[in-house]
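Deliverable D5.2: sample structural annotation.
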Amino acid sequence: MLLTFAKDLPGKRAQLEMAPANRIGSLREESSPPPDAMDAAVLVLLTPTNAGRNCEDLLAWKVFLIRRNSSLGVHSGQIAFPGGRREALDTGLCDTACREAYEEAGIDREQLEMTGPLTSLYVPSSNFIMHPFLAVNKELRPVRLNAGEAVSYRNIPVRECDPGRAVWLEFEYPDGQRRPAPAWRYRGFTIWGATAMILAELYRLVAGEALARH
């Protein structure tokens, strides 16, 4: 099932719908990330649950998320896409996303049909520019989590990522302060921050039928 983008990405407009309270102003104002920001990439992996002939079908497709190991710095224990920092041997950021997905969850590039990049997002807490790449899972294979990176995973229906379903909760930040942010709860996963902002764009793409189906 080949997916392509039928029109422009929703971009920052969609990301803002799930932005933490302390990020809304800076997201609206920032023109570019700091010069010392580092590139990272994540894989936004959709698994089909039907033929995907219309918007309602695609909203039932599932997106893969992991819970990070609790010993991984500023993003310890958080719900995330498989991904990480670009390495020197990576031929590009898409290669980074695919390599990390294999290392963290045993997702082989051969089972992926790449769709294209979603909108990049600067993450101040890690000083990463996060580049998401959307892919479709062509073949169901067992997930093999790397225990040093991830402790559990979920496949979450895209319809659950409607910003209208979000609730506001307080989260502890690396500086020790607690601040509010919109979040979703699904089967023990609480999804917020950069992951939620990327999912908001994915939801708007699907709900707005910005994905063409062939």
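Annotation notes: The chain has five helices and 13 strands. The first helix runs from residue 12 to 15.
The annotation will be released with the project's public dataset once the embargo ends.
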